[in-house]
Backbone:
């Protein structure tokens, strides 16, 4: 039994050195991306269009509804215990620092991780990757780096957009149903903002974007020969991205308390 356990553990961690090398390679390629030819930049633009621009409507609805719901429900609960002034801190913590980055990352994972993994997997099975290599084009430079940058930048900007809509939502809903409730709303919100809250939100969005893009491209390139592996790569990219996002979120939240 111990031998079987050891074999299982070795199999699990056998790909770790390769994964670390892949992460380092994609990082260096992304840093040097500005010098790439126009064709690679077009891939970056298309990735931003699909991941960022096309996700704006769903992010706006999700964030505005979440912000308004948190404000209205939270205000009534806090008012019952005489702490209604805390609603602004609660709203900012939940929308800007905690729920905003992780919900944006989940939306991007559901929309883009599958698309990237299946697209790259399809290119592997159709021998397009081999064709790139045969003419001296590095698939990491040309295919992975622009997707890495596109997804990371998209999560970052979508997180800012989520925070804006999530803060604006309660003001709009309050004006429609109870204008007295939102008197001095923005002035109270501004008083509760903090640099650490904004930095934490930014760090989370960047890290989550990196996790999603690296996971999706990694599983896309890991497809071998059979076309039946392509949907499996898409499923693996989504599930592993969710796990990576949750682990990264826990680490980022816990790190200040550990240090």
Residues:
């Amino acid at each position: 039994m111990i031998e079987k356990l050891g074999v299982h553990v070795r199999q699990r961690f056998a790909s770790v050195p390769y994964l670390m090398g892949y992460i380092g390679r994609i990082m260096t390629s992304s840093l040097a991306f500005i010098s790439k030819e126009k064709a690679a930049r077009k891939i970056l633009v298309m990735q931003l269009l699909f991941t960022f621009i096309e996700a704006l409507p769903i992010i706006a609805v999700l964030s505005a509804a979440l912000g308004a719901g948190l404000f209205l429900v939270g205000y009534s609960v806090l008012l019952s215990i005489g702490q209604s002034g805390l609603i602004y801190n609660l709203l900012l913590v939940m929308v800007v620092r905690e729920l905003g980055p992780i919900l944006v990352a989940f939306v991007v994972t559901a929309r883009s991780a599958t698309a990237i993994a299946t697209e790259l997997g399809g290119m592997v099975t159709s021998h397009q990757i081999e064709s790139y290599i045969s003419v001296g084009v590095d698939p990491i430079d040309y295919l992975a780096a622009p997707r890495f940058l596109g997804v990371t930048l998209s999560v970052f900007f979508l997180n800012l957009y989520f925070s804006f809509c999530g803060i604006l939502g309660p003001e709009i809903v309050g004006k429609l149903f109870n204008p007295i409730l939102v008197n001095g709303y923005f002035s109270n919100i501004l008083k509760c903002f903090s640099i650490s809250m904004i930095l934490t939100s930014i760090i989370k969005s960047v890290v989550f974007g990196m996790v999603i893009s690296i996971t999706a491209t990694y599983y896309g390139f890991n497809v071998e020969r059979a076309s039946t592996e392509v949907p499996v790569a898409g499923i693996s990219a989504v599930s592993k991205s969710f796990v990576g996002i949750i682990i990264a979120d826990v680490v980022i939240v816990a790190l200040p308390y550990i240090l």
Summary: DSSP finds ten helices and no strands in the chain. Residues 87-125 form the longest helix (39 residues). Residues 70 and 94 are 8 Å apart (CA to CA).
